[in-house]
Design brief:
Blueprint: E1 2-7, H1 19-22, H2 27-38, E2 44-49, H3 53-63, E3 69-73, H4 82-90, E4 95-99, E5 121-124, H5 129-140
Parallel strand pairs: 1-2, 1-3, 3-4, 4-5
Helix pairs in contact: 3-4
């Protein structure tokens, strides 16, 4: 199984940005743990990140035919991007949306996920472990 993790804006700052919300572990360290955990189970994980909406759309489109699934944390674009939502709907690759923080315990504008409406499911509020839970969801639904 090949899965692509796509991280959106500011997720390159995980571990430094608002540690009370996002924790103190940087994503690169967590990604290494995920790769080591799932490689013996036959799961190949790749990861890309961009602060640019159009690049995220490109990553989604390029995943078709190359990956069995996408784990997407669109960051702030979650609440605003019709274009990313359309890209998810346009490809034949299942997408699970993840969020490190619990969106529903935060500002009201974060309670709406445009991108989530096009995804297989959404995992929110479990810290970086949200990514592990997304991988598990793909394994459970092979």
């Amino acid at each position: 199984m090949k899965l692509l993790i796509i991280n959106g804006p500011n997720l390159n700052l995980t571990g430094r940005r608002e540690p009370s919300v996002y924790g103190t572990t940087d994503f690169g360290t967590w990604f290494g743990v995920l790769r080591e955990t799932y490689a013996p189970r036959g799961v190949r994980l790749d990861c890309v990140q961009s602060n640019i909406e159009g690049e995220l759309i490109g990553f989604i489109q390029e995943a078709e035919g190359r990956y069995d699934g996408i784990v997407l944390n669109a960051g702030g674009y979650t609440h605003t991007s019709v274009a990313i939502t359309d890209a998810i709907r346009a490809v034949d690759v299942p997408v699970v949306e993840v969020h490190i923080s619990n969106l529903f315990a935060r500002e009201e504008y974060r309670h709406v996920s445009l991108t989530g409406t096009a995804c297989r499911g959404t995992i929110t509020g479990f810290g970086l472990d949200s990514y592990r839970l997304a991988v598990e969801s793909f394994l459970a639904n092979r």
